[in-house]
Amino acid sequence: MIRKTIACLGVAAALLASGSPEAAETTLRISLQLPLKSHLGQNLLLFKEEVEKTSGGEIEVQIYDSAQLYKDKEVPQAVGSGAIEMGVASLTRFVGDIPAVDIFYMPFMFNSESLVRAATAKGGPVRGPIDEAILDTGSRVLWWQAYGGAIMLSKGTPLRTPEKIENKKVRVFGKTLGSFMEAVGAAPTLISGSEQYLAYQRGTVDVGMTGISGVKSRKLWEVMDTITVTNHADIEFVVLVNEDFWKGLPDGHKDIITAAAAKADAAVRDDLARIEAEAYAAAEKEGMTVVELSAEEVAAWRKGAAPVVQQYKASAGALGEKLLKAAEALRGTN
Questions:
Q1: Dihedral sign, Cα of residue 20, residue 21, residue 26, residue 28
Q2: Which residues sit opposite 140 in a β-bridge?
Q3: What separation in angstroms does the CA of 148 have from each of 24, 39, 180, 236, 274?
Q4: Are 87 and 78 spatial neighbours (Cβ–Cβ below 8 Å)?
C-alpha cells in the first residue's frame, strides 16, 4: 500500500536544521517488466521527472524495472489489490476479467498508424470503454504506452505464409493471438515477456512473437536470427494506479500526475516510428534478417485468421460486440 511519508515534527525539524530535503509527502512505486533502457522504461522516467519537478518534491516516483517486484501477468492483481501503487501491464493481461480487450490482438484489425491512433485516442470509442471496464478491477488507467506492431521471430527460415508455421510451437502473449496461431495450424504457448529469451534459447518454442523494440531491449538477436514483419496486432501497455489510492490523493497531486501522464502518453506514441526504426536497424546490425511481406502474403495470413473473429464475438460479450463495431467503423474511415 502507498506510503504517505509524513515525518514527525522532531525529525522534520532536524532535517530542516541540517539543510536536508524533506521526505516526499507521497511515494509512487511503479512495477515494470521491461528493462529501464527500453522505451517504456524511458517513458516512465519522463513521467517521473515531470511529476517530481512539478510537485516540488512533494511526490516521489520509484521505478522497479525488469520484473523486480512483479511479472507482467501479476501486475493487474497487484495494483488492483493495492499491493503496489502503480504498475505497467500488457493490455491483454486483463483478458481474464475483460475478454473484449483483445480487440487490439484481433489479427490485422489495427495494422496502420492512423488506425492505431484512432483506436487509442483517450475517451474514444475503442479506448474509452476499455478504460472504464478496467476501473472495475480496482485500477485506473493513467495512460497507454505504445509498443508497436507485432512481429514474428524464427531461426533460419522467414515466415512468409501460414504454411511455414504449421505444427510449430509459438510464443504468444494473449488469448486471441493464441487463437490466431491455432487457426493457422500452430501450437501457441503463453510466455511472459521477461521469460521469452530463455524460451527461445532452450527451444521451448520454435517461433517468437513480440514487438521490434523488445528485440532490441532484450537482445533477442542472441537467440533468434530472422524477423518477419507481419504487424498482425497492435501491442499496447497500460500504466495503472490503484483506484483507492488515487481517491485518497490531494486534488493538487491528482492534477500533477494527470498532466504528466498525458505528456507521457503523447510522447511515447509520437516517438514510436523512430523507436521502431532504430530497433530494426540495431537488429540488422547484429546480424538478423528482416523480411517484409508482400500484399499477397499478407492476404494469405488474413485468410488464415478469419475464424478468430467469430471466436472473439463468442467470448467477448456485449462489450466486445461494441468494440468490434467501433473498430470496423474506424477501419472504414481511415
A1: negative
A2: 241
A3: 35, 11, 18, 7, 11
A4: yes
C-alpha radius of gyration, the chain, whole number: 21
Question: Which grid coordinates belong to 301?
Answer: 495470413
**Residue 114, helix vs strand vs coil:** helix
Q: What is the rounded distance in angstroms from the CA atom of residue 294 to the CA atom of residue 83?
A: 47
Find the Cα–Cα–Cα–Cα dihedral 327, 331, 333, 334, rounded to 10°. 120
Q: Which domains does the chain have, with CATH numbers?
A: 9-333 (3.40.190.170)
Q: What angle do CA 44, 253, 29 make, to 5 degrees?
A: 40
What pLDDT digit, counting tens, does each position of 228-264 carry?
Answer: 999 999 999 999 999 999 999 999 999 999 999 999 9
Q: For residue range 76-102, list pLDDT tens digits in order.
A: 999 999 999 999 999 999 999 999 999
Taking a C-beta distance cutoff of 8 angstroms, is the pair 223, 168 a contact? no
State the virtual CA torsion across 306, 209, 187, 234 in degrees, nearest 10: -30
Residue 62 pairs in a beta bridge with: 29
